[in-house]
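Thread: Newbie trying to understand structure tokens

Hi all, I'm a second-year student working on a class project, and my supervisor (Dr. K.) asked me to get a predicted structure for one chain before our next meeting. I've only ever worked with sequences, so writing a 3D structure as a token string is new to me. If someone could post the tokens and maybe explain what I'm looking at, I'd be very grateful. Here's the chain:
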Amino acid sequence: MPETLREHRTLFDMLLHSSSKYAERTAFVYTSSNTEFEVSYEKLFDDALVLARAFKSHKVQKKSNVMLLSDNRYAWMVTDFALLSLGAVSVPRGSDTTTRELEFIIQHAECEFLVIETEKLLKAHEEMLKGLKNLKAIFVMEGGKTHRWFNHTYSYNDLLTDRTITPEDREEFIARRYALDMEDVFTLIYTSGTTGVPKGVLLTHRNIMYNVTTVPPLIKLQESDSWVSILPSWHIFERTVEYVALSRGCCIVYSAVKTFAADLEKYQPTLVATVPRLWESMYSKINQTVERQSPRKAKIFKILVSISARYNKLQRQYHNQLPVFEKVFWLRRWWQKIVAAFAILLLAPLNAFAKKKLRLVQQRFGGRLRMAISGGGSLPPYLEEWIDAIGIRIVNAYGMTECAPVIAGRGLNCDIFATLGPATENTELRIVAEDGSLLPAGEVGEIQVRGEQVFPGYYANEEENEKAFTEDKFFKTGDLGKLTLTSELVITGRSKEIIVLASGENIDPSRIESAITKLPFVSDAVLVGQDKKGLGALIVPDFDQLRSFISGKFEPDTDEAEEVTDLTDKQVLSRVKAEINRLLVAKQGFKPFEKLQDIHLLDKEFKMGEELTNTMKKKRHVIESKYREIISKLLK
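---
Reply by user tm_fold:
Sure, no problem. This is what the structure looks like when written as tokens:
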């Protein structure tokens, strides 16, 4: 067990340590009502103490399950800190949770208390909440004085009227660390569910502290580092990132999707952690901005990126930094290195010029970004190469809520590109076939994992617990992957998302969807075709880009060139499908049956909380149910 893990047995220990060691440093920067606020570690401690004292007076205690319904804000972390101190179990979720889902979680988790972000949000769920008999009190983060006699709803303004802190208060607050143990559950997170009903994931202090102590060395985290935060705090990826940052005295800037690009330039972070979908958004915005400036500039930009990417790949080929899945005869390997070395020499002058020009793009990320962390989903290869080509070190990480979340990551300890790196320290990772037998490097099977980060089980769900673990206590992730000869992990898909055609071919939809979304006029895509003769796709178009594409394909005086209004127009659909299938060719690693037989253009974007999870993963079961009629007509 690492020394730091012994020193800080629990998350509360860690927060107490940081609050003391980095007392005067800025912990958070956030904006409220167009006013920017900075909060020190010392104030974080004081605010948590006062709130914990108030919670305790309303009977919140160890093992109390507390529903925490809120989006990112400073008060979220204060609430979390306060609940940790009492040994209460937070059950967090975002404000976009539907009333029906909220009711299910509160009842299934047997929550005794509810902390809710605003009075408006409380009103939206008011009728449902009145019917819940087990709730002892409701606390509203942002609101006026709401408490009335015989009413168990309190605003934080009601709770925090007395902010006086005595030396005895401090001693009592700090002493609570001794009532907590590494095996205590600190949170119960209900997964958003890409495939079905949410399951409650129990996480202990041991699980989260494994991550808090393991991640910093992988990214060489320094006290001087600053983060821009955009993901929902309740999600374990973002939550762990914040804990990791706080453990080293870093500054966290709360951002939002709308202000993310501007905040990167304004606050100039050294680190940013986000999901593939937001990298896709940045990729599209930058390319579209250049395209709008001038088609000639756009063409030059693409050439510069291509040169940089090609040079980087040759360098990695020469230095043995590309994934290898089977042994290569030494003579062939040396010949490949000689060819790579020769190509590097030829390309070096052009690469130097390309890299110099591409530094300007880095200004869009603030200019100080030393590392970008991508998690919460698999990063498409084209996007990973693009980020790398413009000069940003990308840490591609893999994890799950059930592992709090880190399983593997290509940190600074790993140079093998296009992989997720090796399993993290003291983690056992294996690839198994359907019959449970171990598979060698290069063969695809289910990823199974065992280690201190693996959760003890799902809450009140013995049936799922039996399915989730092997007899020797390995957690069955449900993800498909393979290992390189040097044990780096590559994700190939998710077993529950595999599409099986009527002819028996198994198809990973994520590969094809990633290829499709490279097209500028495709905002999103969902592959369909289970038990059908061929594949189809639901396409969410970028209408401006689609108009540009269509105008270039039709004669200037035709109606189609003027406007794309009829999403069922056969000529438009035919052109779009042909352009997509032009990407799905053998040269790019696709098989003949992976071409699309038909497509449908949707008139609405997918929304978080509906078709998308809070980390912007597609809820395939929801999408397939919502568009069932369209899908059935698409692939008759």
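A couple of things are worth pointing out once you decode it. The CA atoms of residues 180 and 296 lie 63 Å apart. Confidence is low (pLDDT under 50) at residues 1-6. Feel free to ask follow-ups in this thread.
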